[in-house]
Amino acid sequence: MASIKDVANLAGVAVGTVSRVINNTGAVKPETRKKVKAAIRQLNYIPNEVARNFKMQKSKMVALLLPSIWHPFFSELAYYIEDELDREGYKLMLCNSGGKPEKELYYLDMLQQNKVAGIVGITYNDIENNVSTDIPIVSIDRHFSKKITCVTSDNFEGGRLALRELVKAGAKRPAFMGSITKVFSETIKRKEGFVHEAKALGIDYVVYEKPDPVTDEEAFYGEFLSRHKDVDGVFAITDMFAANYIERAVKLGIRIPEDVKVIGYDGIQDHGLFHPVLSTIRQPVEEMARMTIRLLYKKIEGETLDRETYRIPVVFRKGETT
């Protein structure tokens, strides 16, 4: 593996000159800068980020704490977060916890010790006491008692919108299907909006939810299907819940959307190859990601933000399930 000395020797300059080119500091002649960059490319030299941060006393690394990179919503979010960071020369450190609180605690402790520039956190576990504000942090969906900025979609309005769309599609007895997190999260407001709108319109409705995580999916969906055979509309807390429900309902001979209309929440099915294409409340994932990083930049610079919670509007995207 090439070293900074190898780059300096190939370019015919001092090590300090290479360092100034890499860190974009100090005066370097344009022709010298070109030689150094050419040497870096030729040797495929990768700067030691940790050493650079230590010397500069300023990290250019931002950590993203995710419950699961496998989930399409989180992977799409990570894509736009990394892209926004790259625009300003920051690097992304991905911390995939698998939703396990012990892994989240491990990552938080590690990040505190390594002094990253900032943290973007998505967690639905009770780790309140271990979240420190010593490092700038922005949360997505989750509120903490400490003054930590939260970026989220308008979940309450999304729930209201889903109920209205189900009724518009002909549903007479719609149901909310979801899971209950251990701690307060903005996602809870999806149910609250659904129930609020149903009551406002005088619609008979069902709420079906179990503690998160749902470990026995067969039992979860099986119970719903056996207990609520008169339900003709389903608003699922996520697109994945909706897709799992549809899969099991179809096996029982239930026609979607003729017998039951279904709406999810997230908007992760963007490709026409998915069938049926799910009707969903689409979160503005790109806007959420970019806003999160821009707010984090402000916190890194020591600015005071004008509010703690930033809610972004959602839209209904009609598919083939309503």
Describe this structure in words.
By secondary structure, this protein is an alpha/beta fold. The protein folds into three domains: 44 residues, Orthogonal Bundle (434 Repressor (Amino-terminal Domain)), CATH 1.10.260.40; 122 residues, Rossmann fold (3-Layer(aba) Sandwich); 129 residues, Response regulator (Rossmann fold). The chain is built from eleven helices and twelve strands. It has a six-stranded parallel beta sheet with strand order 2-1-3-4-5-11, sandwiched between helices. Helix 8 links the parallel strand 6 and strand 7. Helix 1 packs across helix 2, helix 1 crosses helix 3 and helix 7 crosses helix 8. The longest helix has 16 residues. The chain is elongated, with a radius of gyration of 24 Å.
- Number of beta-strand segments: 12
Poorly predicted segments: none
Query: How much of the residues is beta strand, in percent?
Result: 15-25%
**What CATH first level of the largest domain would be assigned?**
Alpha Beta
Give the distance, in angstroms, between the N- and C-terminal Cα atoms: 57 Å
Enter the CATH topology name of the largest domain.
Rossmann fold
N to C succession of SSEs: HHHHEHEHEEEHEHEHEHEEHEE
Major sheet details? 6 strands, parallel
CATH architecture of the largest domain: 3-Layer(aba) Sandwich
Large-scale geometry: elongated
Number of spatially distinct domains = 3
